[in-house]
Structures are given as C-alpha cells and as structure tokens.
Input
Amino acid sequence: MRYYDTYEQETLATLNTRTGVKKNTANYSSYWLDFDDEEYSSSSSMSDVMASSDPERIIKLASVRRAIANFVRILTNNEKIEVMFSSGKDSYTDGQKVVIAAEDDSKQFDPMVGLALHEGAHCLLSDFNLTKNLLNRKEWYKAAAAISPELRKMTVGNYSNELGDKYFQNTKEQIQSYQSVIGLIMNVIEDRRIDSFVYKNAAGYRPYYDAMYNKYFFNTDVTKNLRYNREWRIPTVQNYINWLINIFHPDFNRNALPGLSKMVDMIDLKNIRRFDVEKRMPELLSDWPVDSTMRTPWADYYLTHPQYSSTYSPYFEWNKHCPGMIDYSKLPLLWTVSNDIMLLIVQYVANYQEELNSQKGDNSEKIMIDIDGTSFEVDSNTLPNLDMGTQTAVVSEKKFNAKKADSWVKKMEKVMNGENRRKKLNKKEKQDIQNLENADAKLVEAGDTIVGKFPCLVTRKLTKQIMESDVFPFSYSTLTKHKQNEEAVIAGIRMGQILAHRLAVRNDPTITHFTRQERGKIDRRILSQLGMDIENVFKRTTVDNYKPVMIHLSLDASGSMGGKKWYKTMTVATALAYVASKISNVEVVITIRGDSTIPIVSVIYDSRKDNFQKVRTLFPCIYPMGSTPEGLCFSATLDIITESVKDYDTYFINFSDGEPGTSVRRGNEYKSYSGQPAYQHTRRMINSIKEAGVKVLSYFITEGVSTHRSSYIGNGSQIAFKTMYGEDAVFVNVENVTEVLRTLNKLLLKKVA
Output
C-alpha cells in the first residue's frame, strides 16, 4: 500500500516506483524565501555564499524561519504557535511551538518545511493532554491505571505484601516499557491521521510532505530490509514496531509477521479519520471517568499505611483523588486501539517464545518478554491460543544492510516522537536571528541580468537590538554616542523647528471666497441688493489643499562619508524627521546604505511608524562604514521607494560622496560591482524610480567649493555622478549641505495645481 492510496490520491502514475512519492527537483519553498536560490546554484549554492561569515548565515536562517512560520500560520490559522530554531533544550511536541533545524542548505528546505507542517498539524489536531497524562514515564502509575484490563492482568497483577517495594519496581519497569511501545503505536496512527487531514485540506502542501517522506521514511536500506530481510519476519517487539512504522511504505507487507494483518485492520488507514471525533482528555486525568469496581492494585495498601505517604507521595496523591482504575471504555479511541495492538504484540511474541521453548523441551509456565530493553515474565496461562500458522511473506535471498536499516528505523522513531537531531544554534546566533526579525530584515536579490545578481540585506525597522548586533555595521555594539554626532542631531532639531514653523501652513487648507458671481450659492449678505440693478448675488468658495508629500532620504553611509560630511548629513536628516513629526501631510523615510560582507540598506526612520524619540536616542549612535553599493541598494529598496506614489507626491533625495563599489564572495570567488557597469546600473535604477512617478534630487557632498568644476572633485567622480544621476545632479560643499533644506522648503510649500 502506498501512502497516496491512504489519502485517496489518484496520481500513482506520477510517483516514483521505489518510494511511491513524486520526485521533483524543484525547491517548492523558494517561493516563500526572501532570496532566489537558483541564482546561486549554477556555480555555488547560497549556503556557500552565506558560509563566508556568520552574520550572513544568520540573515538567511532568519529568512528560513520566517518562511516556515508563514506555512505553519496558514495551516493552523493560529498566530500563537511559535516557530523556533533548535537550541538543544527545546521541547518539540508540546503543542505550543514548532522547533526546526538551523539548516541553511537549500536542498533541505522542502523536507524541513514538510516536517514543520507535520509538527504544526500536531499542534492543531493532536490531544497533548492524552500524551502528557498517559505517556509520562515519571508518572507511570497513571498509565498503569489506564491500560487495558487484559494488559493490566498480564503484567500488573494483584498487589502482594510479600513483594513490597520489589512489586512496585517491577510494575514500574513493565508499565514504562509499555508506554514506549504504546506511544510509538499512537504516533503511527496519529501521524497518519494528521497527514490525511493536511492532504485533504491543504493540497498545496503535498510536495513538502513528499520531500519529508523521501528524506526520513523511504530509505533504500529500509526498503531492502522490508523486501529481503528474513530476520524482520521473526515475531519480536522491535520487528512489529519496524513494520508498523512503515505501514504506509510501498513495500509494506501485512503478512510479514503473525497477527500483523489484524493490527493493520485495527488501524484501518482507509478510515483513519474516525479518530477525529474523539473526546479530548482533560488536563487532569483524575477528571476522567473512573471505574469504581476496579481499584488500582496498590490503593488499599497505601491508603491504610499513611507512613508511606511522604515516601510514595505521587501514588498516595493519585489514589487519594482517584483510587479506582480509569474507565477504559471511556478512554479515547487512539489510546484503546494502541493498547489492543500492544496486547496483540505481547501475545504473539509470547506465543513465539513459548513455541521455541517447547521445541527445546522447556515447559515453563513463565514466558520472558523483552520490550524496550526491559525483560519480564508473562504467565503463559493468560495467553490465548493464537494461530501461529498465519501465512508470512516469502522472501528471496538478496543483499541488504540490516544494521543501516535498524539505524534508520531509530531515526524514524525519533522523527515520529519529535526527537530527531537538528542542527542547533548557539545563544548568540539565536538572539541575532530574533534581532533581525524584530528589524523586519530580508535578504533580497539586487542587480539585474546585465550587472549580475547580488544578495542585499534590507532592514525596515531600526531597533536598539539590531544596532547592537554584528549584522548591523553602522554602529558599535555598545551603542556609543559621539559628541559631534549628538551636536549634529541637536542642530537638526533646531533647524527642524524653524522649518516646521514655516511649513505650518500645510496643516490647514486655504479657503478663498468669491462674491458677486453669476452662479454658485446665494450670498445672503447681498440678497437685499437684488432690486438695485444688481443681478450677481451668488458666491463661490475654493479650498486649496496641499497634497501629501513623501520624502525618501537616502544617505550614503560608506566610510568616506565620515567626519564633517556625516555630521552635516545627520543634521539634515534630523531636521526632516522633525518636520514629518509635526506636519500632518508630510512623511519622511530615511535610509542609510553601505556594506559589510554584503550590501545593506537600513530604514532608520519612518514617520508613519516611528516616534521622533528614536531620532534623539539612536541617531547619535549611527556612523558611516564600508563601501558604496549605490544602485544595488536602490534595486533592493525599489518597492519601498515607489510604494507611496499613488497616495503621495513622492521625492527621492540622495546624498552621496563617491563612486559605487563593492564585492561579494561567491564560493571561492569574489564578484565585483564597480566602474562603468556599476554607473550604468545605478543609472537604470534611477530611471526606474523616475518612471514610477518619483521626483529625484541627487546631491554630491564635497569637501571643496560648491561648483560643478571644482578642483576638489576629480573628473572621474564628476562624470560618474552625472552618469548615474543625470545632468540635474547637484554638487554641494559640505559646509552648505543644510542649504538643501531651503530647496525642500520651496517644494513643500507648493500647492496642488
């Protein structure tokens, strides 16, 4: 049986003949990621690029986590389910979070998404109170009170004072071994149930499930053992587990072991969704119905020997509140079916051992059962006369690797239990990822087919945490404030106050009344003059509004902008931010651009979202650093620049002091962005901005005289700047940078035509 059959799919013709799973080399999850992995697959993988430095790896992992979180959120429709990376101390199946591997290999994205969806479905559909109550090995006595009467009779028996503590120890070990196997059986059933739900209700997610099954379940070594390993046909507890785990495998054979066919029928994959209609367990098992006719084996003893209440307080408390056995008939179907299958396994294993003993001439009434490393005796008199002549699979002699298969089965068990090994993050990496997500960071593909594609980091929120991280190159980790930077911000606030006062008129419309008009509304004030040869007694009123303005201020934050250039630039930026905080129809978005190991653009202020206090506290800690990616940064933020065109009169104002240049490592090679290709690419980006309806003002900040032919500006830089920004680009002396505010003042006082 193929698992597609289970979920009533009619696509078997498209499936791989070995696994039953559709093969596809496409990376389905790449659609949801912030980067295009295909661009890097030709000569090196994206992981090669990211391996060049830890910050870049963190950037990509943050993107992966966000993409997977989108999947889980859509599937579960629950924003509270957290998707987080493994740190080595996390629980995987608590119903509140989905833990994923810190995997930056693009080839692993699809199976990782499939596993995350699988665990998300558990959070949505599974009864975690059931597992918490009955599969908790530390509180094994709860399971002992809830197991099937047949299993209880076979293993727990009746309490004997003569056995004392030994009775409890033996009982504990037996019940704990049962919990392990019953838990696996429950997982087999539950996994098939929730996967059926996903396949039926979220068909678009099937490729990710295919990838997960191919990686974790449809292994070649397991397949060969299912086909050819005679040892897997011996009735042992582990072999029953091996086959049940692979119940949906295309090479599953229900006749491989005695009684296995009965177990398959009890699970009934075709009707697996019947487990949906169950009542859920309460948080406290003692709230579940109790069979008052069946007391726990040790109840009377401990209730009549209070001296043991401190030593055996868990048992004492349990019996005090729930002295009887849990009403087995009222327990969820998932638990009872798993118990019944467990009973069958014990019976068939015991019968097999009894048969072996009889062949050896040993007629002992006690049968030794080994479960999960625990051996215990079973009274053969309690075992039914099961048919050991059930037809088993005929296997041929072919090569297989039993050791590797056993290893894979253990991996399957761990996947089913949510305990599979996952690449872990250290504390710092985990914090950096959180910082990037809080900063709304994305790794985007910048450039075009002519200049090539480059990864570029875009952060849309400036937070204290991101500024303190290694990923943000424009500040020190200690958020050190420079005196001159602080003075620049203070000067900007003063200028902003003056400019805001001048622009206050934008807050109110200008209303003009025109009287003695031929048409319009009647002017009651001159209505009495109607009989005095005056016929124009009408009036009209016009309202002049200021169209909302959006200013995108893009600042070159490369190392050459340091010193006076940067202080003056920060003054202008602060002034505009202040204006936007005071004038209702003026918005300002300020970005800085530079690079570390890759180009980076950071939105440091957005008047639509940010309080001006951010400028006061964080701007003094921002410093220029790195090279000048120019056009790459414009490419990466084109959507940010142009998104306001429909609602605002939009301006793009650029401050720069040099020619573009940066490089990015790709595998063992460095890809350069400089010279004429960079000039022309920047030009294309500026033209794209203009074509979108954005007005562009570009200023070249110089240390010399404010003139186009200044000897302080090299001819190469002049030509480069004109090439990039057009003939209307302006060269401005650093001492006169604030004069830019005069130009902006005039722009902002223009009324709607």
User: Anything to note?
Assistant: DSSP finds 27 helices and 19 strands in the chain.
